[in-house]
Design a protein that fits this description.
Low-confidence stretches: none
Strand order of the largest sheet: 1-2
Number of strands: 2
Largest sheet: 2 strands, parallel
Number of domains: 1
Number of helices: 3
Mean pLDDT: 80
Radius of gyration: 12 Å
Order of helices and strands: EHEHH
Shape: globular
Strand content: 15-25%
Structural class: alpha+beta
């Protein structure tokens, strides 16, 4: 199973390690890539953009 997540700050590191231990393939997205979104940057827009990057659905 695959998981895509943003690697900002340090909070992601424990989650990343736990997912790897459980056998997930984790894909990290640089936070700078989500800053290119139009409009105000929000967690919801970030996760939707990461999902599009992960699944290859870029409009």
């Amino acid at each position: 199973m695959h998981v895509a997540m943003e690697s900002t700050g340090t909070y992601w590191q424990n989650l990343f390690s736990a997912l790897i231990v459980e056998g997930f393939e984790v894909i990290l997205v640089n936070g700078k890539q989500t800053k290119n979104l139009k409009g105000k940057k929000t967690d919801i827009k970030d996760c939707q953009w990461i999902q599009k990057l992960h699944t290859g659905i870029i409009e």
